[in-house]
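tokens incoming
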């Protein structure tokens, strides 16, 4: 009888998505919007930033990388940038330091994406052979574009139908084009529990996102993930400190195979891990945040290792992965963190996760 092959297990590790843009790209974008440079010149800056980001990402040793969202306007507005039927004065998102980011508002139908995320995936594939993760906006976030007062001649139902169709096609195209995983950014999940403690808003968000997720087979759902966080912009969060329990007791109802959960910056990580262990389903992998993206200090690999070992006390190793708490610049003009710090933290995550895998005997 042949010897049974050794079961090779390891702890997967993935980034969330965004990396701070080079100042040269931020300046070129502003110059283009002001009409001071041509589209070709902006394109050259885009390409240079993308190429450099992927090279730096590869140098971290990260087994899965992203395009750093270098050419996205923001994690949520990228499909809309340049549409003629949106206005800037949509729903405001208030951060704890007082600054506000405002979602756009739909002004007329019909609705359709101007840019689908598979465009970014294809651009990044030109520069790397490593597995690429592709982040996409959530249905729930974009549902907020439709104004409370309605739009004459274009009903909310018509908008939701169009939105669900766009999202399904976007995720499907990313999967077909070879994305390692498609990650739905669900930062408004935790925010919703702050805005509506009854959890009705959260329930409606989860139901809405499931309307897209249920269009995929169980195998496809294993290549789809959901990212949850309290926001990270200009050194601040929109819902940090809000009880995590309301979100975590509902989050895993989303029909996705992977969850990327902010954890490193939580004051009571064991409490959060306990809730995750109670609610995550056996076929769902939980990538815990082991890097605090708002802390300017770079974690040591040993500190990351210890966070993974702590998590392994609550989450079966076969279901465990690691990630960063959030992207390092979900909005393109956020310069509160440097590219160097972001890549140093990612490198520490990769090394620390490997140390933990070795300590657990699965490396
Ligand atoms: Zn995030």
């Amino acid at each position: 009888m042949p010897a049974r092959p050794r079961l090779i297990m390891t702890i997967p590790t993935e980034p969330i998505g965004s990396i701070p843009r080079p100042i040269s790209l931020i300046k070129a974008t502003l110059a283009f919007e002001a009409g001071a440079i041509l589209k070709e010149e902006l394109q050259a800056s885009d390409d240079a930033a993308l190429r450099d980001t992927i090279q730096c990402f590869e140098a971290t040793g990260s087994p899965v990388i992203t395009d750093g969202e270098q050419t996205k306007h923001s994690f949520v507005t990228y499909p809309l940038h340049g549409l003629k039927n949106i206005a800037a004065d949509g729903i405001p998102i208030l951060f704890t330091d007082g600054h506000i980011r405002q979602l756009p508002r739909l002004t007329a139908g019909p609705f359709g994406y101007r840019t689908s995320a598979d465009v970014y995936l294809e651009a990044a594939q030109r520069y790397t052979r490593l597995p690429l993760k592709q982040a996409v906006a959530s249905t729930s976030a974009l549902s907020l574009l439709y104004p409370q007062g309605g739009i004459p001649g274009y009903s909310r139902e018509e908008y939701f139908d169009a939105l669900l169709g766009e999202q399904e096609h976007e995720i499907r195209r990313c999967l077909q084009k070879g994305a390692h995983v498609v990650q739905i950014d669900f930062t408004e999940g935790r925010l919703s529990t702050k805005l509506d403690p009854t959890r009705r808003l959260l329930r409606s968000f989860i139901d809405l996102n499931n309307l897209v997720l249920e269009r995929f087979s169980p195998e496809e759902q294993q290549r789809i993930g959901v990212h949850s966080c309290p926001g990270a912009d200009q050194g601040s969060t929109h819902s940090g400190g809000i009880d995590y329990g309301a979100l975590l007791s509902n989050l895993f109802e989303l029909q996705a195979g992977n969850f990327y959960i902010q954890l490193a910056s939580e004051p009571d990580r064991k409490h959060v891990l306990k809730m995750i262990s109670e609610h995550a389903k056996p076929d769902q992998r939980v990538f815990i945040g082991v890097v605090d993206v708002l802390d300017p200090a770079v974690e040591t690999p040993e500190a990351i290792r210890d966070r993974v070992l702590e998590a392994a006390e609550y989450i079966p190793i076969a279901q465990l992965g690691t990630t960063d708490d959030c992207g390092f610049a979900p909005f393109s003009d956020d310069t509160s963190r440097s590219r160097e710090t972001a890549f140093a933290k990612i490198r520490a995550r990769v090394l620390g996760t490997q140390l933990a895998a070795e300590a657990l005997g699965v490396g």
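note: Residues 16, 187, 227, 229, 232, 326-327 surround zinc ion (CB under 6 Å).
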